[in-house]
Each structure stands twice: as C-alpha cells, then as structure tokens.
Amino acid sequence: MRAFQCDVCGAELFFENSVCVRCGSAVGYSREQGTMVTVSDQRPICANLNRCGCNWIGEAGGLCFSCSLTRTRPADGDTVGLSQYWIAEAAKRRLIFGLDELRLPIKISDGTTGLAFDLLSSGHEKIITGHQNGIITLDLAESNDAHREALRESMDEPYRTVLGHFRHEVGHYYCEQLALVDDRREQFRGLFGDESISYDEALQRHYSGGAGQDWQSNFISAYATMHPLEDFAEVFGHFLHIADTVQTAEEFGLISDEPVVRPLEAPMAEVITETWLPLTKGLNQINRSMGRSDLYPFVLAAPVITKLGFVADLVTQAE
Predict the structure, then answer these.
(1) Would you say 212 and 220 are in contact if contact means Cβ atoms under 8 Å apart?
(2) N or C end of the chain: which has fewer CB within 10 A?
C-alpha cells in the first residue's frame, strides 16, 4: 500500500479514509488516477459508501470499479450478512488495489469477463469459499473473527484472513490465465506437478492422510500439498502478501528503497533473502512484544522461493 496526501491541505491520508481529518474535505480513492482525491460533482463517491463503507470514486451507475465486481451480496434485510459484507468489501478493495499495482488484468479486453465476486451469507445456506471460471465465492462468515479463528484452529492453520482468502482464490484465476497456457504449462508442472490429476481424490487423500511430516521442505503451507492447483494458489497468495507488505514498508520508511526491493524489480531470491526475511523477522518480534502471535508464521524453503520466482515472472509478463 502507498502513502497518500490530501490534495487540499497536504495532510496524510490512508487508503481507508473518506474524510481528511485536518481540513474536513470529503476524499476517496480514484482508481483512474491511482491516488486519493477530493470528492466533487465530477468525482462522486461510490454509491456504496453507506452500505459497505466504500470510499472509492464511483463510475457509471454510481458504483466504483471494485463494487461493480460484486455480483451477489446479502439482502438489505440481512443485518448480520451486511455487517460481514462490510468487512469483506474492505478486504476486496485492498485486493483490487494490489492487483492494479502489479498491472494484472482484472477484466478481459472485452470487459464482459474476468474476475467477479459472490459474497454470500452462510446464515441461510451452506457456502463453500472457492473459485470457478473467474467467479470468487466467499462465505461471509469468514468476516467474523470468532468463526474464522475457530476454523483456523480446527484446521491447524497458522494464518487465516479474509484478504488471504481473496488472494488465494484469485491465484486460481491467474493460474488459468497465466500459467496453464501452452508456453508455460510444462514449467508449471515441473514446479508444482500435474494439474490434471483428480482433484476430488487428492482432496480426500489430503484430509484422510494429512500433509506428511516434511512438507515444509517443499511447500509454503500444509494445504499446498493437497493438489498442484492449490500449491500454485497458495504461492500466488503469498506473492501478493509480499508485494503489498514490501511496498507498504518502503512507503512508510520501514525499509530503504536502496537497493531495489520490489518483487518485480529484482530476482525473487534476492527480495526474499535481503528484504522479506529481515522485515518479517523484525515484524514477528514486534508482534511478540505486543503479546501477539507472529505476523508471518511461515518458512520459505528454497523450492518455495523458486515457485515464488515463477509467479513473479508470470506477473511481469502479464503487464
């Protein structure tokens, strides 16, 4: 995430601001300009400002680009679902910002296909978070801290967030768009395995037998061991974590911009060893100083770093 300033008084603004706290100007994020701007008749705020706290500049029809990607949301009478929807949309806006920063295509050139989102409340029916043909489905119960923490513990996961879900699921989309294509498929299989093996059988095998004792030698998470497609999605999600966190740390002066540290401007192994590992080591210790668990509780073995390099190359070529 980048640092922003009010274009009226120059005060510091954050990505979530809808009002400048110094001068009181109404502000919003302009995707077209890539920065925070003052709201005006020519730059109206998204029609979802009061529905889900959206502070992006609206497009045709009143919705901003991010909100227009949501196909389905809770009904107006679903107060629980709407409160969870508020949290999910905030995470989705940060997701879209990150994809834009990496210049990844969100809509196909004809504008009719690409990523879209169904944000559904499991209070009325069972919802499975997942991806299919560019449609990301999220169980909005994941926005509830207690529910999500209970699932994290029951599944023995070190990390589980709404933003993490979004980043993992878009990994499936970009796997189809960028990796499982003629000139990349063999390289994908050399790193992740044969994606054509039965997903259902792999899923059953994973939940009956687990990941194995030495999974950290080759995988970024236990879930990544389940199937090559899940391995890629996990690595892609972590690449987005790294890209966003490194940019944020640089923008707010936590790391130097010399040497170059952005994931697309240096070899991934260099980014990991010279920037990411020292940064996360310090952030983990800061979290512990506050009595909290590690911010980034993952081990990046050499094969994982190679996979991250493959993802970085895919993203670079997609620009």
Answers:
(1) no
(2) C
